[in-house]
Amino acid sequence: MTFLFKSEARRGEVWRTRLQREFPNLEFRVWPDVGDPLKVKYVACWTPPADLGKKFPNLELVFSVGAGVDQIDLSALPSGVKLLRMTEAGLAAGMSEYGTLAVLAAHRNLPAYLDLQRTRAWKQLPAVTAKDRSVGVMGLGVLGAGLLESLRPFGFRLHGWSRSSKVIEGVSTFAGPDELAPFLSRIDILVCLLPLTDETRGILNSKTFDALSNGACVINVGRGAHLVEKDLLDALASNKLRCAILDVANTEPLPADHPFWTHPKVILTPHVASVTDAEGGAEFVVANLRRHFANEALTGVVDMSRGY
Ligand code: NAP
Ligand code: GLV
Q1: Which of 163, 192, 208 to mutate to test the pocket of ligand 1 (most atoms within 8 A of CB)?
Q2: Domains 2-88+276-293 and 90-268 share a fold
Q3: Cα(121) to centroid(ligand 2), Å
Q4: pLDDT digit string (tens) for 6-30?
Q5: The pLDDT value given to residue 157
Q6: Omega before 253 within 30 of 0, i.e. cis
Q7: pLDDT confidence of 186, banded at 50, 70, 90?
Q8: For a pocket test of ligand 1, which of 70, 71, 194 has the largest count of ligand atoms closer than 8 A to its C-beta?
Q9: Which of 34, 47, 143, 259 places its Cα 20 to 30 Å from the Cα of 220?
């Protein structure tokens, strides 16, 4: 049987070594060198090859090399094939670093100070203490819950919103569409860590921004399509929002003429908030293949009906 890898070459070499050590009878192949398609039972990819089911009729598992699976057309996966999203610890660690960096940057007015530096202006802006700032995280999964944990020592008022109710010590939690407005009404710094689904597409829009505190900041580390970019530009222009820190964009790479590149209130990074660690990713796959061979429950299985 074959494990087919379709992702970065450097990560592939780490996975090949680890999987061959663990499963000597598993043939490790790198796309497009698939060998006998009938032998392909496992595929790891960011985007799968087209016609996956037809090409590999004996496919059992598809591993997303990232936490998100919105890049994969779930309806095109053959029924009976399980899709697993990546939940290795390095992803959460990276997101906690980036999210904390971004929340502190928003809290301490970094976008405005960077802009003042560009104009050689030595100007002190009013400071707000962390205990007087409300940070809200949309999405309380592996990454959102991890970020809230990292933010705890700073003393912010912490809030979180998810689909189903959660209890997280020291965090006011809200759930479902009915509790979105009460969640937003408290927030000075909003972080989006939702998966991209039909329900969450465009959720960072003018209605959401209007519900936040005046002068709030928005941090998008989910997906570009969570954000209605025109609504963000309008909210920054009207000073409803003070700043935005964006790691993702609707079109990646961001087009050269896009207003975000030079916007004085926007800090932009090229989808680097967290990246799957090669070793951690290999361990995740090994652990799940072991479970699969032992007929045990797998971790990170995507619920096709929810889309994440
Ligand atoms: P996860 O563990 O599946 O958590 C998703 C969270 O979002 C859950 O708490 C879920 O609620 C909530 N949610 C989903 N749909 C919702 C809805 N309609 N309304 C309210 N809450 C909803 O995912 P994760 O591992 O934390 O990753 C989250 C996302 O981060 C990924 O999908 C990806 O898009 C993004 N990401 C970005 C980067 C980057 O570098 N920028 C890196 C990795 C991941 P329940 O708990 O009730 O199910
Ligand atoms: C990156 O964006 C991921 O989903 O892992």
Answers
A1: 163
A2: yes
A3: 38
A4: 999 999 999 999 999 999 999 999 9
A5: 98
A6: yes
A7: confident
A8: 194
A9: 47
Long-range contacts of 289-295 (CB under 8 A, 24+ apart): 289/19, 289/22, 289/23, 289/26, 289/42, 289/61, 290/22, 292/60, 292/61
Q: Where are the domains of the chain?
A: 2-88+276-293, 90-268
State the amino acid at position 270 in one-letter form: P
Q: What percent of the chain has pLDDT over 70?
A: 100
Check: CB of residue 77 under 8 Å from CB of residue 52: yes
The set of protein residues with a Cβ atom below 6 angstroms from ligand 1 is: 66-68, 91, 95, 139-144, 161-164, 193-197, 199-200, 221-223, 247-248, 271, 273-274, 308
**What is the distance in A from the centroid of ligand 1 to the CA of 196?**
8
Per residue in 214-249, pLDDT (tens digit) is 999 999 999 999 999 999 999 999 999 999 999 999
Top-tier CATH class for 2-88+276-293: alpha beta
CA 198 to chain centre: 16
| Chain segment 49-59, per-residue pLDDT in tens | 999 999 999 99
47 neighbors 72 (Cβ within 8 angstroms): yes
Pairing of strands 134-138, 2-6: unpaired
User: Can you name the CATH fold of 90-268?
Assistant: Rossmann fold (3.40.50)
Q: What is the pTM of this model?
A: 0.98
